Amino acid sequence: MPNLTRTLALIKPDAFERRLTGKIVDAALDAGLTIVAMKSVNLNRAQAEAFYAVHRERPFFDSLVAFMTSGTIVAMVLEGGTAVPAWRDAMGATDPADAAPGTIRRRFAESIERNCCHGSDSDANAAIEIGCFFSGEELLR
Ligand code: IDP
Ligand code: MG
């Protein structure tokens, strides 16, 4: 049996509001990833600040927190052989102008901030980020 790894994936408020949830879930499935858990959530300011704490000193931090608290998001735990890079490849580069053709951000994103989706950047951060949204009980298979 192959080793399975997990990543946190978020569908951001811009994409939820534009009714792109189904297309983004399809992209995850088409990338060979399996949905372990999924829920819709509205983040409060403290939750968004904590989630993006690594970016606290960046000039876009306040705007990013305002954006991420502006509407509903969908949080998913995705599983696969190499879930972190598989989901980041499916998303494409942070700036949609740099994202490869066919990626979620190239297809749907409006700007570098309103870029439709989030993915963890390492297995260690995936474990931390999954814990921001899901209890251990919700992750039992
Ligand atoms: P990532 O989502 O591709 O991992 P990060 O550099 O971790 O990109 O940035 C987190 C989020 O912050 C991005 O997805 C985007 O929404 C926002 N962001 C990143 N860089 C900028 C910027 O230069 N201006 C505005 N928002 C940005
Ligand atoms: Mg990141």
Short description:
With 141 residues, the protein is an alpha+beta fold. Helix content is 39%, strand content 18%.
Description:
- The chain contains seven helices and four strands; from the N terminus they run E-H-H-E-H-H-E-H-H-E-H.
- With 141 residues, the protein is of the alpha+beta class.
- The chain has a four-stranded antiparallel beta sheet with strand order 2-3-1-4.
- The radius of gyration is 14 Å and the shape is globular.
- 33% of the residues are buried.
- The model has no long low-confidence stretch (mean pLDDT 97).
- Inosine-5'-diphosphate (IDP) binds at residues 55, 60, 64, 94, 112-113, 115, 118, 121.
Mean pLDDT: 97
What are the distinct ligands in this entry?
inosine-5'-diphosphate, magnesium ion
Please state the structural category.
alpha+beta
Strand order, sheet with most strands: 2-3-1-4
How large is the share of residues in beta strands?
Answer: 15-25%
Largest sheet: 4 strands, antiparallel
- State the low-pLDDT regions, or none: none
Question: How many helical elements?
Answer: 7
Helical content, roughly? 25-40%
Number of extended strands: 4
